[in-house]
Amino acid sequence: MSWETTNREKSACGCDLGYVLRETRSDDWNRTEENATLHCIECQTNFVAYSYDVHRSGMTESIQRWVRKDDYEVFERTKREGDTIEQKARTQLTEYLRTQYLDRWMSIFEEVPRNKKAVWTKLKQINMINISYSNYCKRTSDLEEDIVSYVSTYYVQPLFKVLIISSEPMIESINALPNEARQRHNEARVAMMKRSFS
């Protein structure tokens, strides 16, 4: 099961003073891999390799491009900022939901005995979970904590269906910040890709 080079291709680099060498290799199992190396001192100073996956015809393919270092730094910074904003928004949203709706949610479980079978049955009945009873037992150690956990960011839509809440302006304003951060990150990626080469 040896790998052999099936294709070698040279293409221009970003400054046209050097080149990118792409080698495709395959093995007896019909697996292929592509390796790209940058042969340009100028571009090696100003560019970094950036890889991402695309899905085509049910297959995942990794693509590599050379992007400007300063563009990549902006791209990474906006990602970190977006992740931080998103985490803060999740925390803020969960706190808000528990302040506003936890009592209503807990009232649904007033008559439910505090054993796993009864809680799982109630959660299943109101369409909050779709896991089996055995999986529920494996993942649940504290029943009260588990019941409260459904009043959180991750369950907003099913929670609102159960509590019959159509819209909540505060939630929309909390979600606006992560959406804006994602937009900035996407814009940084578009700008980075425009000045890249493969």
TrEMBL record:
Protein name: Zinc finger protein
Source organism of the structure: Paenibacillus agricola
